[in-house]
Design brief:
single chain, alpha+beta, OB fold (Dihydrolipoamide Acetyltransferase, E2P), 2 domains, five-stranded mixed beta barrel
């Protein structure tokens, strides 16, 4: 028997031949692991640049609107009389709750709003703080009239997402892995958004409402998180694109 190749577990070191084999196997396993990790990483879709400023509260002053969804409209500084010189912030509550109760009866009211900013691709949202988030302000000044521009009838393919998670609270917040969460958010009053992806990787976000402009969050739960085709009318309301369509006209994309 060659004693140099015989390894006893309680010895402080392995025989030279045994140690060389172990080093070779260990190095080989490390190299294989690195190759597999690089391969898996190359197949991953990068996160979208969505932001949720959790822990940071801000204040905004603007005019409240109840329809088509709760919105704070803020005048853009230095824009003069440009017809769309208003920035629209969707309003939502904490957790999986909308903000309709918080703005009820305050349509057209100038107010100071406190909350946390959520944003993606120029789409902005405020998660209201739990207490005293909206303070109505006394003013004799009339609020701005909503500027509307009809863009036309369109047929688009995309995915219905819940705006709060998609704009920054969760990342990623699309596809079937997010379906259950999105359904709960929409059921709680979070506005649905129709996400259209361009061939160049760009994204188009359209607030989704019924053909008459009503809220349809609960009506689209069966269509969430899968590729669908929607035909409807698009209009711009201030800085917000709105797609008006009826759920019974939706169709799934093979």
């Amino acid at each position: 028997m060659n004693e140099d190749g015989f390894y006893i577990g309680y010895h402080p070191s392995a025989p030279p031949a045994h140690a060389r084999r172990l080093r070779g196997v260990s190095i080989g396993l490390v190299v294989i692991g690195l190759i597999l990790a690089a391969g898996l990483a190359s197949q991953q879709v990068p996160f979208v640049p969505a932001v949720f400023e959790v822990g940071t509260e801000r204040e905004w002053t603007g005019w409240l609107r109840e329809e088509p969804v709760p919105i704070l409209v803020v005048a853009l500084p230095g824009e003069g009389d440009h017809p769309f010189a208003l920035s629209s912030y969707l309003l939502v509550g904490s957790g999986k709750h909308g903000a309709r109760d918080a703005v009820e009866g305050l349509h057209g009211q100038l107010a100071r709003v406190r909350g946390t900013l959520i944003h993606l691709d120029g789409q902005t949202m405020i998660e209201l703080t739990s207490d005293g988030a909206i303070a109505a302000l006394d003013t004799a000044e009339d609020g701005p009239i909503a500027r509307r521009e009809a863009i036309g009838r369109v047929t688009l393919q995309g995915e219905i997402v819940d705006s709060k998670c998609h704009f920054g609270v969760m990342n990623p917040a699309t596809g079937k892995v997010h379906r259950a969460c999105a359904a709960r958010c929409l059921s709680g009053g979070i506005p649905p958004v129709f996400l259209v992806r361009g061939e160049d990787g760009g994204r188009l976000h359209l607030l989704l409402t019924g053909a008459d402009g009503r809220s349809i969050g609960r009506d689209v739960l069966d269509w969430v998180a899968e590729p669908i085709e929607v035909t409807g009318h698009v209009e711009r309301i201030d800085s917000l694109l709105v797609l008006r369509a009826e759920p019974d006209t939706f169709s799934r994309v093979p």
